[in-house]
Amino acid sequence: MNLAEMIKKLTCAYGVSGDEFRVSRIAAEMMESYFDRVDIDDFGNVLGRKDCGIPGAKTLLLDAHIDQIGFLVTEVTREGFLRFTTVGGVDQRMLLGSELTVLTKKGPILGIVAAMPPHLQKAGDNKKSVPIPEMVVDIGMTGEQAKKAVRVGDFMAFANDAMELQGDALCGKAFDDRACLVCLLYAMELLKGKPLAVNLVLAASTKEETGFQGGIATAFRVKPDFGIAVDVTHARTGDAPNVICKLGDGADITLGSNSNPRFARRMIEVARAKKIPHFVSATPSASGTNAWPMQMQGQGVTTLVVSLPLKYMHSPVEMLRMCDVKSVGKLIAAFIETFDGRL
Description:
Layout: H1 3-12, H2 21-31, E1 37-40, E2 46-50, E3 59-65, E4 70-76, E5 81-87, E6 99-104, E7 107-113, E8 137-138, H3 143-149, E9 155-158, E10 163-164, E11 169-172, H4 175-190, E12 199-205, H5 213-222, E13 226-234, E14 251-256, H6 261-273, E15 278-283, H7 291-294, E16 302-310, E17 318-321, H8 322-338
Parallel strand pairs: 3-12, 3-13, 13-16, 14-15
Antiparallel strand pairs: 1-2, 2-12, 4-5, 4-9, 5-8, 6-7, 6-9, 7-8, 10-11, 11-17, 14-16
């Protein structure tokens, strides 16, 4: 399986939180060969189920969310510009001059976030960021044309596709968190033909960026005994030198309130025994992943957070290394292969 091409295919599709169904269909197709059954619910969550065949076996839920940050049109002006608000955590400093795709009823339309030339700026303007309510998207249409083409409530997303850089680096949008779905699919590939002692459910969940709604609905529906949220974590960059991990360090196994201590230690033992590249991080409170709502379902779910290092999170140029994608997948597969539902 070509993992980089799978990431590209997933991230080239548009699926802003609340409108993930294009990505859901692609995810379902990728999952079909690994599970006994795959379905898409009304939220757009994709669930793949694989039964181990052992009566009374425990259920392990694997989760990676497939939504992305983006934008929502709030007004089409008389001049043909689009005003907008954000969906999820978007840094306004990087938006001026960005290329966006407007997802209209009749199809996608390209646009750019208007950027005032330096010649027209007042003294000091270049030292402050422009508030999002003052920004507009220019789609090259008159007011009359724009009002026919675009509706209030249409979603918008960064327009760039993923690209390969030097070595095994990959750069693009929506790696948070679709790259982690590919990690899990790689794990399923490694587990092909091997007997399991637990029932598996893989969830490609929705709406994580706006409040974990997809993860909540999935955990409520599946009622797992154990859950692993696989998400991205920050990797060191030139402007963030104090971040503990860097690309190439492998899988991040998180200790903290979202990770059951015995669960985390068991995962660490597997990583060490199999010599899988990994590191351990500490997150004392909410991890910002679906493990947070997952663990609060029913009588409580035993959860763990495993993460993929990522540079420039929530930007159109997120960056990862394929060796880390493989490390995360190998770790999850190695754990599942020896897991019988007891810690």
